[in-house]
Amino acid sequence: MPQPYDPAAFPSVAVTVDLVVLTVRAGRLAVLLVERGEAPHRGRLALPGGFLRPDEDLPAAAARELAEETGLPHDCVHLEQLATYGTPGRDPRMRVVTICYLALAPDLPSPVAGTDAASASFVPVDDALAAALAFDHDRLLRDGLERARAKLEYTPLAAAFCPEEFTVAELRRVYEAVWGTPLDPRNFHRKVTGADGFLEPTGHSTTRDGGRPAQLYRRGPARTLHPSMPRSTGDPHPG
Amino acid sequence: MPQPYDPAAFPSVAVTVDLVVLTVRAGRLAVLLVERGEAPHRGRLALPGGFLRPDEDLPAAAARELAEETGLPHDCVHLEQLATYGTPGRDPRMRVVTICYLALAPDLPSPVAGTDAASASFVPVDDALAAALAFDHDRLLRDGLERARAKLEYTPLAAAFCPEEFTVAELRRVYEAVWGTPLDPRNFHRKVTGADGFLEPTGHSTTRDGGRPAQLYRRGPARTLHPSMPRSTGDPHPG
DNA sequence: TCCTCTTTCGTCGAGATGACGATAAGCAGG
DNA sequence: CCTGCTTATCGTCATCTCGACGAAAGAGGA
């Protein structure tokens, strides 16, 4: 903590808040990107974000940026702090410390045209990683992906990618998109319906997936998964 | 990311790097604290930390603070970013954004007298939480504890609390101190010796624990634990 | 009606785990 | 040397979970 204190003793540091906003669209994991209109990295794709305001809390800044870029109702979006990046030179203009937030959102039907939403669009993560992003945003994105993949294992957070009511198959497709591996529908069904507090039946059902009508569920109250969601398929055993 | 750019457009923000340094001493989990010599919170206990320097990377700043406060050889200390705190008013003097790092260290034999090490000392976490810390350091400490407890479950990081060579019982006492729950020595032994890459036998043995001589191990190359270290004792089943 | 599709329920063997018994191998004291 | 104490290490067993897969249920379409 600041012991010696002198307003002139510390350097000028700009603080920004950036976002890794993930969603699952057409069975693929996608990230929200904006095209930079100014130097440096003009024309390159970048994560959305902006300066922290004078009297703004960190989560509030993240929520504000999220609303500006997506117009999403922020009661259906999961938002958590990811990490902070401050390597000198990561922004050629000046010393910038960036607090990165991770957001998981359901596939929004209309790309709501907010203030800055015009230039923002969801890009499949594979494409985003192939096309080098501006600044060190490749790294932020990779860190966000790693966090999201890990969290699906031991939290019921996959439901954050789903609409209010969803089927077990829709939830499974979220896992398959984020992890990039196919899962057995039968074992998956047994697992999630057996997990305490993961799913709450709504009583409704739907045939939007084509075959036999599926039960509709909403998110349960659980915050963690015990035991965790097994990720491997085909890997025999670690022990 | 900074789109509009104007050096005068962002407010003056001080960036500090604070540390939650944990160790296990006398079977209890302890945290490194310093006594504040200046206002605000003069005389209160606080986490060690300081200002980020102009051309210093974040992990480098954390490592520097750690060396200043403990004098620990920093090749035996695990250091990772914990979270960033920037709520307006958390420091009454000015806007401060603090990047907090978590460090796990073995019990150092001599409290090496470094530059600032004089005032720094390890305090059992229970005592630290009972005595309110300066600023919002209670929260940083709680977050650090939560992270540490979680990481022991799915990583071999408990060995970071142990010296170069250690016995299974010493490792078990680390888990018991961090989690605050007793573990069955026989099941624990089976688990850690069976986990791939967790422990590497040295061939030596010791009787420093009193009874039958115990094998000495060093840390293995594994970075994660599959399956994870079971935490519950007494809880029958979650399903 | 028959086929196809997806959901949902069962079965089986292979680990993993919790509880706990049994043995091994040191030391202290008589 | 023998007895008792300590702790380390090995086994056993019932229960739970998981992966692989079979089979029935319930809708729509040819």
Automatic annotation (TrEMBL), chains A, B:
GO molecular function: hydrolase activity
Keyword Lipoprotein in record: no
Domain Nudix hydrolase: 11-145
Ranges for region Disordered: 194-239
Alphabetized InterPro entries for the sequence: NUDIX_hydrolase-like_dom_sf (IPR015797), NUDIX_hydrolase_CS (IPR020084), NUDIX_hydrolase_dom (IPR000086), WH-like_DNA-bd_sf (IPR036388), WH_DNA-bd_sf (IPR036390), WHD_NrtR (IPR054105)
Entry keyword set: Hydrolase
The protein's name in its UniProt record: 8-oxo-dGTP diphosphatase
A Pfam family the protein falls into: NUDIX
Entry keyword Protein biosynthesis: no
SUPFAM superfamilies, alphabetized: Nudix, Winged helix' DNA-binding domain
